[in-house]
Amino acid sequence: MRKVFVLFLVLLLVSGISCALASTLDDIKARGKIFIGTDATYPPMEFHDEAGNIIGFDIDLGRAIAEELGVEAVFIDTAWDGIFPALDAKKFDIIMSSTSITEERLKSKEMSDPYYVTSQAIAVHKDNDTIKGPEDLKGKIVAVQIGTTGDLAVSEMEGVEVKRFDTIDKAYMEVLNGRADAVVNDLSEVAYRMKMLPDMKIVATFREGEERYGVTMRKGDIELLAAINEALQRIKESGKYDEIYEKWFGEIKK
Amino acid sequence: MQFDLHALYKALPSLLVGATITLKITSLSIALGLCIGIIAGLARVWPNRVLQILSGAYIEIIRGTPLLVQIFLVYFGLPALGLNLDPFIAGVIAMGVNSGAYVGEIVRGGIESIARGQMEAALSLGMTWKQAMYYVVLPQAFVRILPPLGNEFIALLKDSSLVSTIAIAELTRTGQIIITRTFKSFEIWSGVALFYFLMTYIISRIVRLSEERLRYSE
Description:
The complex is a heterodimer of chains A (254) and B (218). With 254 residues, chain A is of the alpha/beta class. Chain A contains ten helices and twelve strands. In chain A, helix 3 crosses helix 9 (222-238) and helix 3 (57-69) runs antiparallel to helix 10 (240-249). Chain B has one domain: Orthogonal Bundle (MetI-like fold). Helices cover 82% and strands 0% of the residues of chain B. In chain B, helix 1 (5-45) crosses helix 4 (87-113).
């Protein structure tokens, strides 16, 4: 029994060391697959179609990146509130989940060049005329998705009561049910939702052009970072990016 | 507010897939929990101080901490030790280890509910402690263990909704995903509840039937 235990410890140690030596990029190439973590509850960036397949802008772009790297993209659906710990725990190689580049995230993660730029949007019930801009949120109840840049933005505002949910759809439900005054979230997602929710409207946007989505990697994956930035560059140059953009945002002016 | 039956109808195939995953993860956890629990329960009454303390500590620690925290510890915590499990396996291990503690207490309770005289009589007839346990106490204890065991299985099946937090697409997560697309909260959660009820009802019927059989055979 003791021998087995010692063997187990040795194996653990060896696997730990070999992991530390091989870079993530080598791992990806060796297995021919890149594992991409995404929280597929966020249309049109990443969501499930009726058959249960994960689709969206990030998904198509992720496939294009994988193609550039010469590997296959495998998407791993993950809850947003656990997505960063899951990346660090090596549950996947990269995150593509409408993740804005922030200073805070750059401290503990590598993030690629931005591949999509948007703003924060404020959405309210269509009968609500009291909120016209971010300054009107004072004294109001605002529903957000936990840990998003929308959450960070309203958490910084004084006198705003913030209700945080694990998925963004619950924030909209909160407004529709009269338990919150507004939703604050990325315009990319809010604009799409408004088509599904005739009882709500967008009243303002802020942080214009400051929400820049990047591919997220573990700290220190410099080779992978370079490879992905290069891939993104090529996708933009080849026109593939415009193709994907048009597919998902056809009616939104670029 | 009206109930959109069509939305629920359209979601049924996906919910069914989610329910089978819930069933799969629960049955594997039950199997693991039973193995651990029987060992832990026996260790609690085994005439060996070390075993008693070890199993007592295991049961107290597991029962004293939330299952959700245990799931996070296995899924997000163990990779720090180099043990990187996929969500499904992490879920089964966390739920199985959790259930083992409760099953252990059920087993111990069942054994201790058998009158002491039975054990003493068996010992005085010249049986060893192990023989007395195996031939006299356990067969009687088993019948008493069954109803609380059924409760534990049902509780575990419902608790399996917690693994939705590590993105296993079981019944709860499936419902959540459909709602993020359709906003039909009332309809979809009703459907999810219905599926859970059907599954727990089936378990409780199976337990009831096997109880009756065992009583009959006594």
